[in-house]
Design goal:
homodimer; 244 residues; Rossmann fold; 2 domains; four-stranded parallel beta sheet; three-stranded parallel beta sheet; 7 strands; Asp_race (chains A, B); Asp/Glu/hydantoin_racemase (chains A, B); Asp/Glu_race (chains A, B)
Chain lengths: 244, 244
């Protein structure tokens, strides 16, 4: 039976940052939809056009702003009557408010989607989360989206330090962008280990390049990791499945 | 350096048949693009909306035509100024001419893309192909797209019989659509075995649900299989990389 919500749902994916992270989200939307035939899957239109200036460089003041390209993509998704827009790139959420202002379709924030998954975890698995390790870009760490939400749950956030970002996170992330997932995975696993050593009980993989990299090496830390890309996929499925 | 061809390339993917086959194509486009950073990847917009009547049922006379939904999708991709349109579903190519007629952007036929890959194989690996096993839907087999192209290369095509289609192919294919890739893989591997037993030296996996299923079980037949989804991905990359 098609519900009212389903008839009006078309998830617009503002992707390309990087293209593999977008494919990872699309894959996870399918995995998170419990259906028996093609026609029951979530309708998605994915703008996977990676010709967008580098987000990390823009925030570091060493590259041009991606905002014009992001706005153009939001416009295209609205032209297609997307009902909701999601962005499988954490760092790009720096421009979230500017994009939401220009979009008829509401944007779903990846940190809100992640918070819903953390709350589910706490409630259904009776986990007490005191220390969460946050793996993210400098731009995402500075923005504080995750730290503020975790603090509201009474959890402390552990962050990578500058040296860990420069020697483990950034090269790991750019290895994924080059298609070298295993190399990226080994670097990012070392970063995960550092945060665990400092007391993190749980990890949040808040850069969309990280989950495919850790999956590629079947990292032992995946069992205690929370994946914002999967949380975003679940949020899309919830919009699709919601009864009117 | 951005070439003239790159500035004007936007690959439109008419997907959703099924959604996983579309994700598989997007993944293979990325794998086939030898680049070092996000911005060098092929720009793609994917219409992954699976609310399209079942193609196999339509051709068997037991379901409604998917043509109106396909035409609407082609119209959307043209509105976005797609430069080329590809369809990661072999059976849907039954409506290829009707769609091409209504599309400003040229459509790339998956069997043409596959022929280019077969020719490459013959030329570069000095393979003599005498007997090719074709794994496909009843609709694709009846259409003759692959058989005609293989005959032009001097190769004979071996096809599944009705019982193999009914007991191995169709349940294998619909298992993938339900997300049961391993179960699909085991059924489709049995079908591959039958064609090999009858003398096939090479297999062409001409239903886009088949490559992910055989990959899920790491099938031993993948080494002698040609994947039209990957061939289509290569055709997309060629359009992107082509010098003006």
């Amino acid at each position: 039976m098609t519900t009212q919500a389903q008839r009006h749902t078309l998830i617009g994916v503002l992707g390309g940052m990087g293209p593999l992270a977008t494919v990872d989200l699309l894959q996870k939307i399918i995995e998170e939809t419990p259906v028996s035939r093609d026609q029951d899957h979530v309708p998605v239109v994915a703008w996977n056009v990676p010709q967008i200036p580098d987000r990390q460089q823009a925030l570091a003041g060493t590259g041009e702003s991606p905002l014009p390209a992001l706005l153009a993509a939001v416009e295209q998704l609205n032209r297609l009557s997307a009902s909701h827009i999601v962005i499988p790139c954490n760092t790009a959420h720096h421009w979230f408010d500017a994009l939401a202002q220009k979009s008829e379709a509401p944007l779903i924030h990846i940190a809100d989607a992640t918070l819903a998954s953390v709350e589910y975890l706490v409630k259904n698995r009776a986990k007490v989360l005191r220390k969460i390790g946050l793996i993210a870009t400098r731009g995402t760490l500075d923005a504080g989206w995750y730290q503020q939400r975790f603090a509201a749950l009474g959890a402390e956030t552990l962050e990578p330090d500058e040296q860990e970002l420069a020697t483990l996170f950034v090269p790991g992330c750019y290895a994924v962008k080059r298609g070298e997932l295993q190399q990226g995975g080994y670097l990012l696993e070392q970063l995960a280990q550092r945060l665990i050593d400092r007391g993190a009980e749980w990890l949040v993989l808040a850069c969309t390049e990280v989950p495919p990299a850790l999956a590629a090496i079947n990292s032992r830390w995946l069992d205690i990791s929370l994946d914002p890309t999967r949380a975003l996929a679940r949020a899309c499925v919830r919009e699709w499945a919601m009864l009117s």
